[in-house]
Structures are given as C-alpha cells and as structure tokens.
C-alpha cells in the first residue's frame, strides 16, 4: 500500500519491528554490549556488518538462559534478517540490545530487536527482526521448535 502523502510503500503504518519491543510489552531479554575500537570502520563509526555480531551476541546471551535450546538433532540457523539503521554508533559507547518475540512458527521464531544507547534508551541506533529456524543438522530439514523456546517466549503472569 502506498501512502498518498509520502509516496512510500506502507508509510504511516509502523513495521512490526518498530513496535514489538517497547514499553507496552517487556522484552524477552536485554543484553549489554560494549563497542570495541575494532568495531569501527574508516568512517569512524561501527561498521554495518558488526550490528549482526551484536545481535548474535544478544541472542546467545538470551539462549544461555534457555535449557535444551539445541541438541544433536535440532539446531538453530539464521534464516532471515531485517536491520533498519537509524543512526551511526560511535566509539566509545555502551549499548543495550532488547529482544522480543514477534512470531512463533512450527520450526521458527521471529525475534525483534532494538539497539539503543545504554545511557540514553531513547537514542535508537537500529531496529528490525531476525528469523531463526531449527533444523536437523544430519539432513538439513526443518524440525519442531524446542518446547523450551516456546516456554521462554510465553509471558509469565
């Protein structure tokens, strides 16, 4: 759908990743990341590819708290990613990466993310989502999402 006022597809309607990790819905997990000097590129800000490393680190910090999230017959792979670069990250910086659950499928989970400045959470550097799918490493076929992942993404009363 194209907005008549802007001509941009979907304008006026926020993408789910822009609303999935917010004050109305507590995040699944918040990781702390310290920007390293080596993360910078020739333009003196964090290289765009390094954001993927920050997200990987945040997911692994979260998964360390989830029992039985992989085994010899079921392991996660990154199936898709959407990163929206909102502003550059300079050094030095401490970041918070908030993860949320947008969707649970039979064999996959869509995890939203927001990378913000630790000292100023209103300073949004990046948002978006990734899809992680579980597969059997022996044959490469999709397998059911582990029950522990389903439980870890269910809000507690």
From TrEMBL:
<dbReference type="InterPro" id="IPR050563">
    <property type="entry name" value="4-hydroxybenzoyl-CoA_TE"/>
</dbReference>
<feature type="region of interest" description="Disordered">
    <location>
        <begin position="1"/>
        <end position="22"/>
    </location>
</feature>
<protein>
    <submittedName>
        <fullName>Thioesterase superfamily</fullName>
    </submittedName>
</protein>
<dbReference type="Pfam" id="PF13279">
    <property type="entry name" value="4HBT_2"/>
</dbReference>
<dbReference type="GO" id="GO:0047617">
    <property type="term" value="F:fatty acyl-CoA hydrolase activity"/>
</dbReference>
<dbReference type="InterPro" id="IPR029069">
    <property type="entry name" value="HotDog_dom_sf"/>
</dbReference>
